[in-house]
Design a protein that fits this description.
single chain, 237 residues, Undecaprenyl pyrophosphate synthetase, six-stranded parallel sheet, globular, disordered N terminus, binds 3-methylbut-3-enyl trihydrogen diphosphate, binds magnesium ion
Length: 237
């Protein structure tokens, strides 16, 4: 399979799903329609990923900074998230998909937070691909929270300052227990990380694709992985 690159293990692919608003604007539609079409692209991409050598698919769905968008758009996005969690759980189970959510859940509405816990529990024993949704996620906020947690441990005398190493920090991140991303894809032509997986992407390969997220699908994902297989990963060695 082309997705395996020069590694024997399946890949962790992370995607910054960008360009919903521009997709809608190009059609004279409200931004919400772009987000709606973005959910269809998410479904297509998840299905495509299941046919490739991908163990984890992490999707940047709502950033910590996205709370600063106009209240109406935030409201619509949360409505779509509610709808996705409600309608998709059955299909995730049928397809043996494990769901994990990373981000600061404290900002999410109570009913959404509850649905997330239920979906995670219900899919916890599934053995297929792991779908990781980054919701209310920010890389800097994640690292700050990890530092706070470690500082509390030091205060409580459970840890010495000298014992704080990369492993200790990684264990406090939302992604604890997950492999680092091998590939980070960003759609829409923008070339920035926008606070996504800052710690975890230290040695990820970045692929920037000139396609708006609602148009994304199997062929784009395959092309991104094809690009990845041509990269020589050196890890500084
Ligand atoms: C990505 O599309 C979806 C979210 C960030 C929630 P955008 O809404 O950022 O669309 P553009 O970048 O304005 O086109
Ligand atoms: C990043 O896209 C966040 C998500 C895709 C969820 P944004 O559109 O919010 O990022 P900027 O504003 O272009 O950096
Ligand atoms: Mg954007």
């Amino acid at each position: 399979m082309q997705a395996k690159a020069k590694s024997d293990r399946p890949l962790h692919v992370a995607i910054i799903m960008d360009g919903n608003g521009r997709w809608a604007a190009a059609r004279g539609l409200p931004r919400t329609m772009g987000h709606k079409a973005g959910i269809d692209a998410l479904r297509r991409t998840l299905e495509a990923a299941q046919g490739m050598a991908i163990s984890h698919l992490t999707l940047y769905s709502f950033s910590a900074e996205n709370w600063q968008r106009p209240a109406g758009e935030v409201h619509e996005l949360m409505g779509l998230l509610r709808f996705y969690l409600k309608t998709e759980l059955k299909s995730l189970c049928e397809n043996n998909v494990r769901l994990r959510v990373i981000g600061d859940r404290g900002y999410l509405a109570d009913d959404i937070a509850t649905m997330i816990v239920q979906a995670e529990n219900k899919t916890a024993n599934n053995t297929g691909i792991t779908l990781v949704l980054a919701l209310s996620y920010g890389g800097r906020q994640e690292i700050a929270a990890a530092v706070r947690a470690l500082a509390r441990k030091v205060e409580a005398g459970m840890l010495t300052a000298e014992a704080v190493d990369e492993k200790q920090i990684a264990a406090q991140l939302y992604t604890h227990g997950m492999p680092d991303p091998d590939v980070v894809i960003r759609t829409s032509g923008e070339k920035r990380t926008s606070n996504f997986l800052l710690w975890q992407s230290a040695y990820a390969e970045y692929v920037f694709q000139d396609v708006l997220w609602p148009d994304y699908g199997q062929a784009h994902l395959a092309a991104a992985l094809e690009d990845f297989t041509k990269r020589e990963r050196r890890f500084g060695k």
